[in-house]
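Support reply, case 0932

Customer input (verbatim):
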Amino acid sequence: MCTDAFAQQVIANGTVVTAGPSTTTAANGSSGIGLWALNNGEITSSAPITVTTSGSGGAHAAVAESDGSIDVFAGSTLTTTGASAFGAFASGGGTITLEDGTRIIARASALRSALGGTINATNVVASTTGSNTIGANADRGTIILQGGSITTSSGTLNHGLGVTTSGSIEATGVTVSASGEGISATSGGQATFTGGTITSAMTGANASLGSVIAISNASITATGANIAGVRSGNSTVTLSNSSVSTTSTATTGANAIGLLAENNGTLSATGSNVTTSGALSTGAQANTGGTVNLAGSAAARTRIMTQNVNTRGVVTTGGTINVSFTDVFTGSHAIVAENTGQIHFRDGTPTVNATGTNLVGLAVNQGGRIDSTGPLTVNMLAPASGGSAGRTAAYVHDGGQLALAPGAVFNITGGVGGAGITIDNSILEAPVDQLTINLNSSATTGSTGVISINAGQANISNLTVGGLSAGSGVYARGAGSQAVITGTSRFDISASSPNFYELTSTSFLPVGGIIATGFSTTGVTPSTAFHASDGATILALDR
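Our regenerated output:
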């Protein structure tokens, strides 16, 4: 049967129907459905068609249910203007195929699958116009997208791709532009996103409540404040050969996080670039129970970059971060482990690079732990705009733990002053072996290699301290403070007036919207390889 041009509702109830060039309905509910295939019925089209519905409450443009199927010819247009009206809706085993270049403009979701329904879309251009809508929404159904674009209108709940309750979305080469989240997966939903781009005002990709998101060869840009580029909460997210950025204009971008894992969520990034530029933003963060894995290869390393002075590179507060084949670049503290959080440096010779004033390369505090199984390089750099001070390559504070594999290198370059490693009210249980500290800031102000203060206890073997600004090799101050230096060590002291920097705040993390990290400067006189004062002890042992 073939419908007439400009006909009303097209229904295939257990039959085969060929849709005419135009279908228009105005009724509400199911009476306003444009194309409706059910009970193994089939609706086909042999030329581009136009379907328009203006009713609300279920007046969808195309519905396939109860094993019905609809094939929409290439270049067709589906439009809904009524509330709660989808563009294409597949449910109960129904299947909808949207051929090349189909255009959908919907008041509610442009694409929705539920209860075993399937939608296959090739180079479809889909957009939504209503509030609280999702561009492509799979709820216990399946949506497969090849090319095309998904765009949602204004509203923080207007996600680009939404998948829930064991639903599935596969998107390849798709462009997503969302006023909400780019991908939202919850309650066991699964989403695969390959080779496309996501631009979102909220979190770029967000997995929660046992969901799975796999992203590869893609680009994600998230523009809002207090959001993440990619987040995993009690879920699993993988990111490979992709880029993630959180951006800022005016006040937006503040407190954004490039990669975030929390609440027993796992987020693994391989060979990817993560960039944040907003104030108080963080490159990668694991909150309590979360795990972030940063990895790559010699040919495709992962790169974490924060481009604002008030930022953090890699942070954990009670979670775990594993780092290999990764380089970190920040304008503030680079690596921070606090409140029992752990950061483990593994293969691939990771590097840590921090540029600016009053900042730390490796910051360990209040039970946090940083360790490594291979060589690690920390570079503390001065900004191109001028000198900087207050730079310490590693600061272990208030019960923090630091355990570095042999061969770590700390470089202080440019600016004024600087320090290699400070042990402040903490204990290095095992010796740090073969540590090299290169102090090359301004020669007019000396730098210090190893500092033990406030009952801190340093334990280092085969230590090398040198450089143009090396003014003090090892300094210990105060009763209970101790530095034990063993093995064969070398000190090349050539500068005068050395100093170091002591933390005056309780945390390396922002508090109340401000960076909150303060340092005081202490001079060390005279310049010497070993200097103990105020009841401190330095033991230099050849063993």
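We compared this against your earlier run and they match. Two observations from our side: Residues 332-543 form one domain. Residues 1-6 have pLDDT under 50 and may be disordered. Please reopen the case if you see a mismatch on your end.
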